[in-house]
Amino acid sequence: MDEAFVVVWHDVLAKHARTMCMLERELGDKHGLGASEFEVLDRLAGHERKLRLQELCDEVHLSQSALSRVVARLEKAGLVLRGACDVDRRGVFVCLTDDGRARHAAALPTHRAVLAEVFADAPVPVA
Amino acid sequence: MDEAFVVVWHDVLAKHARTMCMLERELGDKHGLGASEFEVLDRLAGHERKLRLQELCDEVHLSQSALSRVVARLEKAGLVLRGACDVDRRGVFVCLTDDGRARHAAALPTHRAVLAEVFADAPVPVA
DNA sequence: GTACATTACATGCATCCGCATCTAATGCAA
DNA sequence: TTGCATTAGATGCGGATGCATGTAATGTAC
């Protein structure tokens, strides 16, 4: 049915806009992080080992160029470190600094609180 | 449960990114429209009467300034008309031109096809 | 080895966005 | 009426994004 997709899409659109807006504001005001920046920190915190930029690219919904810049910002802020890759000198490893890990830990509750607020009454959609 | 929200959010994020990317590309290549532009046309096509800019703002997930510019672009492209509002001279009415209605009609199948592809295997989420 | 295609990441560029602000019109109170 | 707050929409500005491209490293064919 054509219309069903449209309804689902509108719902995704609405939830995305609402959540993004809140995340940007809350994370920005309280922790000086953008939504993309937090997302990258969050993925890095989820893995113990260093990640190649390309691996991050698969997990985060950003273009390769956008990710490159987000990581550059995070590095300038002292939250991540970029390191050369031994086996492939084109590659770049990224890992959290202690500051980065701390900042992520501090921002996590804020992030989760926003999700909880938006999705509290949400019907479980996922596959 | 904390983690459930996160999973839902990741799903929303993924679907949004995927759909947006495809919409932007397909609508752009085939009809010279951005996703925001199509969305505005779509809302206008859904109503018979003229719409106040503010009414559009409630339906579209854009800031007021972004909407103002989208409408400006659409007007420059000859797809909509801006008209003064009699009862409140601050207000602005927007309506589709014939070209705008035609362009929307042409782009609709493309739009729906993208949604169908992305949400084809989606479980019915809505409440 | 040389030459060419490909990959990983960085960067120039144009575009679009949201925030803050501006202008003009309206409403409301004294 | 005057004066002030509010509202509708437009716009300046800074920032983030994606696309196309650049650079350097790698792989492959010969």
Automatic annotation (TrEMBL), chains A, B:
Q: List residues of the HTH marR-type domain.
A: 1-127
An example of a Pfam family matching this protein is: MarR_2
Per the record's keyword annotation, is Transcription included, yes or no? Answer: yes
InterPro entries referenced in this protein's UniProt entry, alphabetically: ArsR-like_HTH (IPR011991), HTH_MarR-typ (IPR000835), MarR/SlyA-like (IPR039422), Tscrpt_reg_MarR-type_CS (IPR023187), WH-like_DNA-bd_sf (IPR036388), WH_DNA-bd_sf (IPR036390)
Record carries keyword rRNA-binding? no
Q: Which domain of life is it from?
A: Bacteria
Xref: CDD domains: HTH_ARSR (cd00090)
List the Gene Ontology MF annotations in alphabetical order.
Answer: DNA binding
Coiled-coil regions listed: none
Keyword annotations from UniProtKB, A to Z: DNA-binding, Transcription, Transcription regulation
Q: Write the protein's name.
A: DNA-binding MarR family transcriptional regulator
